[in-house]
Amino acid sequence: MTRDTVSGHTLKNRHIAMIALGGVIGAGLFVGSSSAIAIAGPAVLLAYVLCGGLVMVVMRMLGEMVMRQPGRGSFVEYIRAAYGNRWGFVAGWMYWFFWVVAMGSEAIAGGLLLQEWTGLPPYMLAIGIILVLMAVNLCSVDVFGECEFWLSLTKVASILLFVVMGVGFVLHLFGPRLPVGANYVGHGGLAPNGITVVLAVIPTIMFSMIGSEVATVAAAESANPQAGVARVTRSIGVRVTIFYLASVMLVLAIVPWDHVVPGKSPFVAAMTVMGVPGAATIMRLVVFSAILSCLNSSLYITSRILSELARGGNAPAVLALRSRQGAPRLALGASALAGLVVALCSVLSPNLLFSFLLSCSGGVILLVYMMIAFSYLLLMRGENAAGRNWQGYLSIGGIGIVFAAMLLDPTERMTALASLMTGVFFICLFDGWRMLARRQQRTRTQAGCL
Q1: Which residues make beta-bridge pairs with 367?
Q2: Please, are residues 181 and 170 in contact by the beta-carbon 8 Å criterion?
Q3: What is the pTM of this model?
Q4: DSSP assignment, residue 219?
Q5: For residues 270 and 20, what is the distance between their CA atoms, to the nearest angstrom?
Q6: How do residues 362-384 score in pLDDT, each as one tens digit?
Q7: Rounded to whole angstroms, how far apart are CA atoms 450 and 336?
Q8: Using an 8 Å Cβ cutoff, are 198 and 46 in contact?
Q9: 11 φ, ψ to 5°?
Q10: For 13-379+389-434, which CATH superfamily applies?
Q11: Which of 85, 303, 399, 417 has the greatest number of CB atoms lying within 10 Å of its CB?
Q12: What angle do CA 168, 159, 16 make, to 5 degrees?
């Protein structure tokens, strides 16, 4: 093993673009959108526009910071540069925690999906899935990139195919000639439950659209990190918003919003109306590919963030070691083990420990986004940033509104409070880590004097 700071420049631009796009297209769109539609009706489209706008602004800020100060590393290093080691520590560990919980959740979801075909216990299948994808990540980074490229391409192609079919159905090019356009206003109007419910569904939608910032980490392992990040951050927010808006808009045109069942894929319902044979099986395969993609990305991002934290002295130094292939094996193993623990918690204590972990991780990514916005305002001061501070203020205000909506919603209030408590926990953890490091330094100094 070596202490190289990068794992070899082997990711191509197509890998980075698809990793960024695939990171935000998952089960949250294919299944999770059902809850938002059932609550807000057609007005959910406004919530998707608002959330997509926030993602676009955050990605644009990241791109500008990378162009202004290239070569720092992931976005965590920009937070560290702006506000010091404490906030770099907090941002990095909160981000790692968020993806570890996502890893465990997706693994058990994949296990439940495979159980229908194999009959094996979900926890065994979840462990198997994580181990297989861990083996992929132990190879060189181009193997991970190629695997993630095709998994993400499967999701993107599925959405594009659905959009093409949906447009054809709406235009009466095939299938029964139903008055599909009337579904927008024929079941209580555009906002059947009031316009204020848009705020209630924003947290759910926001969490499903998070993940494109992974590109800033992946780009560090490409031939030209600065150009790679700049290219992706300029376009990813627009692409994500278009994908989500177009697909959900067609679902609402084909299926009356009050026929959508929370927890069941609205895409299956739409394909059934269009007369697509085997719609449920097709969507099950698409969702499984989305789960594999999310797990693959989770293992990659957690291992790289943990390795970066170790290089900065904010995690055990041994986690910075890399194999000959360039993979941070120990950081990868630690992250995979943590993900397995989360998956097992969902089996051993689903209503207590697992629920608590989900609540704690639910809003921490929004706190990280807010830290990115504050860092942008500080690092981009000066004449080159004149007139563009609105992006930082808009992001901070938007995230503040999301947290306010969560606190006002009884079903999301605990998630908001637990996320804030998680942030406080990592702040205290930094103080403990710093005290330990100082004590070890004094011990080494005293030993050297003897």
Answers
A1: none
A2: yes
A3: 0.88
A4: G
A5: 27
A6: 788 889 999 999 999 998 876 45
A7: 42
A8: yes
A9: -80, 135
A10: Amino acid/polyamine transporter I (1.20.1740.10)
A11: 303
A12: 145
